[in-house]
């Protein structure tokens, strides 16, 4: 369903009226397309504190011209050397003069360091960057985003910086991403997943279909898995993408073994997207509504992941990307079952990620969508739908493509240093953080 308010707010009359009445002021977001693969403008590199990250070669590969700009499309502030309250003042001094000049749909990325447990002054100053980034993201407006990346190795963060400094991250704001150390394999920048196989559960429609399309665009051979009732739709999507379809109930006890048998040559990217809702307030929720949601959204993810790791189906260098939700992070009335299942995904990621990387060479991360414009949200009553759209820093709903682009970044061969992360794709929802 079209967002008519967004269209109105982008007119001269709409801008005047929304300002006068103190109403949300959403701006059209610049998203990736073949015609516009990069942000429109230059990149400004600033520093607060002393740093020896050696960012210049990495920033040069983002596709944005570096140097001073009157209206930069992106600003990268290296604050990894901030170690105390005094050097925090350099963050203000660096960004205060340029924030207003950042182009519409522009990006600000602050680089921080891991918190030092032996230095509580450094830890306090670096933690302060999170509050700074999330607050700036809520006030900057005009479709601009602000994110924080904690890193020690600039080359290992290249795929993350390329994502956050591109139109692909249009609906990701107010996020904190930790990047460890890792190798950067050679990959075609236009088709980084070439030669890799990706499986997307619930891939026949909605967000799952968008994920399958994006992974195929990036070169993957995609297997579209969905329930037998959606076999025709899954086959249609797979045929369009040059992939294959797999009709399978993901809640079956032997689903993992059947997936392994269907992929004898192995799997590189596993996207757990299948999910259902059965909303009721707890006092009115029958046991079947609880158990069906937990089985599809959480238990099936645990079972199939365990089976595919045990079978060795996921090859070294593989990626697991699960779908959480802000409902699991902030809670949502009428969704105790759904919220529990999605919070369970977060627990799975945080626990499994270090072991999966050590034992199997596989990373485990999650995306947590907020209000995404789908057929399901289009059926939500008008006032509830409008509240969902506006209650984020960008004052609009996201698109399935936003979740898909974030998934593709986590699936990238160069994202091996990103592990155990839960990234919200919610326009920085005002619920929770």
TrEMBL record:
In this record, what's one Pfam family? adh_short_C2
Top-level taxon of origin = Bacteria
Q: Which NCBIfam families match?
A: PRK08261.1
Q: Where are the transmembrane segments?
A: none
Q: Could you tell me which residue ranges the Ketoreductase domain spans?
A: 196-370
Q: Does the keyword Secreted apply?
A: no
The record's listing under SMART domains reads:
PKS_KR (SM00822)
Please state the Enzyme Commission number of this protein.
1.1.1.100
Q: Which UniProt keywords apply?
A: Oxidoreductase
Which PANTHER family does this entry report, sorted A to Z? 3-OXOACYL-[ACYL-CARRIER-PROTEIN] REDUCTASE [NADH] (PTHR42760:SF78), SHORT-CHAIN DEHYDROGENASES/REDUCTASES FAMILY MEMBER (PTHR42760)
Q: What is this protein called?
A: 3-oxoacyl-ACP reductase
Q: What SUPFAM superfamilies does this protein map onto?
A: NAD(P)-binding Rossmann-fold domains
Family indicated by similarity: Belongs to the short-chain dehydrogenases/reductases (SDR) family.
Q: Which species is this record about? A: Streptomyces gilvifuscus
Q: Which Gene3D superfamilies does this chain map to?
A: NAD(P)-binding Rossmann-like Domain
Identify which top EC class this enzyme belongs to.
oxidoreductase
GO molecular function term, any single one: 3-oxoacyl-[acyl-carrier-protein] reductase (NADPH) activity
Q: Which residues form a coiled coil?
A: none
């Amino acid at each position: 369903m079209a967002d008519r308010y967004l269209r109105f707010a982008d007119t001269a009359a709409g801008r005047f009226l929304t300002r006068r009445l103190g109403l949300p002021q959403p701006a059209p977001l610049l998203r990736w397309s073949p015609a516009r693969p990069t942000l429109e403008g230059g990149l400004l590199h600033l520093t607060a504190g002393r740093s020896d990250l050696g960012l210049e070669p990495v920033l040069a590969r983002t596709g944005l011209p570096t140097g001073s700009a009157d209206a930069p499309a992106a600003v990268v502030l290296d604050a990894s050397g901030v170690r105390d309250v005094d050097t925090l003042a350099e963050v203000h001094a660096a960004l205060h003069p340029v924030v207003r000049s950042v182009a519409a749909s522009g990006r600000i990325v602050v680089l921080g360091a891991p918190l030092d447990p032996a230095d509580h002054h450094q830890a306090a100053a670096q933690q302060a960057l999170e509050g700074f980034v999330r607050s700036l993201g809520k006030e900057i407006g005009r479709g601009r985003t602000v994110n924080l990346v904690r890193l020690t190795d600039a080359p290992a963060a290249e795929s993350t910086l390329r994502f956050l400094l591109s139109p692909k991250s249009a609906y990701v704001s107010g996020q904190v991403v930790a990047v460890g150390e890792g190798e950067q394999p050679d990959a075609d920048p236009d088709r980084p997943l070439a030669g890799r196989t990706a499986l997307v559960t619930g891939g026949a429609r909605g967000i799952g279909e968008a994920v399958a399309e994006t992974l195929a665009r990036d070169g993957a051979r995609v297997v579209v898995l969905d329930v037998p009732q959606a076999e025709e739709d899954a086959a249609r999507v797979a045929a369009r993408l040059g992939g294959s379809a797999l009709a399978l109930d993901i809640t079956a006890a032997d689903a993992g073994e059947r997936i392994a048998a269907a992929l004898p040559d192995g799997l590189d990217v596993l996207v757990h997207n299948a999910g259902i809702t059965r909303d009721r307030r707890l006092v009115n929720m029958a046991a079947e509504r609880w158990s069906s949601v937990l089985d599809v959204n959480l238990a099936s993810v645990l079972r199939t992941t365990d089976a595919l790791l045990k079978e060795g189906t996921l090859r070294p260098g593989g990626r697991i990307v699960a779908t959480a939700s802000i409902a699991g992070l902030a809670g949502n009335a009428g969704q105790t079952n759904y919220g529990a299942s999605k919070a369970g995904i977060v627990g799975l990621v945080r626990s499994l990620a270090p072991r999966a990387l050590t034992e199997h060479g596989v990373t485990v991360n999650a995306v947590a969508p907020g209000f995404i414009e789908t057929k399901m949200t289009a059926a939500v009553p008008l006032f509830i739908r409008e509240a969902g759209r506006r209650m984020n820093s960008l004052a609009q709903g996201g698109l399935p493509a936003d979740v898909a682009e974030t998934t593709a970044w986590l699936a990238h061969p160069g994202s091996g240093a990103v592990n155990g992360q839960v990234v919200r794709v919610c326009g920085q929802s005002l619920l929770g953080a």
